[in-house]
Design a protein that fits this description.
The chain is α/β, with parallel strands linked by helices and 160 residues long. The chain contains 5 helices and 7 strands; from the N terminus they run E-H-E-E-E-H-E-H-E-H-E-H. The strands form 2 sheets. It has a 5-stranded parallel beta sheet. It has a two-stranded antiparallel sheet with strand order 3-7. Helix 2 packs across helix 3.
Length: 160
């Protein structure tokens, strides 16, 4: 069992994430190796990080198996909510635990297969929580159309 807790989840700054996303956008391949998961619920307004996946926190328990499968080939996964104080970190922790369970199941299947078969092998992945969430992101990158979609400045003017 993993020893990851909410208090020791890795964090990533908005500037580091922006650099990763821009580097991926400049690659010839259309498949990004970075995934951003936005777990905001009804507050998923005013914009979102370009190409992010919206998995509302209130339905995350039901959609977690889908999310684990969808992100299996990603090198980096970043979770966030509005402030990344509760929902974002909780989602990252749930994801890591679900991924660990999937890995344990795959490992069990691997030991039952003939030697050399690696069908269920799970890729090593870095999982982060976006520091300061979307509120912090939009302060710097909200108007940047390369990084943010559907941004509405008026929603954020009075701060979150």
């Amino acid at each position: 069992m993993s020893m990851v807790t909410i208090s020791n989840l890795q964090r990533i700054t908005a500037s580091k994430l922006a650099d990763m996303l821009l580097a991926n956008a400049n690659q010839l391949s259309s498949d990004s190796n970075v995934a951003v998961v936005d777990v905001r619920d009804d507050d998923h307004i005013g914009g979102h990080i370009k190409s992010s996946l919206h998995f509302p926190s209130r339905s995350l328990d039901a959609t977690m198996p889908t999310l684990v499968r969808k992100l299996a080939d990603k090198d980096v996964v970043v979770f966030h909510c509005a402030l990344s104080q509760q929902r974002g970190p909780s989602a990252a922790l749930s994801y890591l635990r679900a991924k660990e369970n999937a890995s344990a199941t795959a490992t069990k299947k691997l030991t039952e297969k003939p030697e050399g078969k690696k069908d269920g092998e799970v890729k090593k992945q870095l999982v982060y929580v976006l520091d300061r969430g979307f509120a912090g992101w939009q302060e710097v990158y909200g108007p940047d159309e390369r990084l943010t979609e559907a941004y509405r400045k008026e929603i954020w003017e009075d701060e979150y």
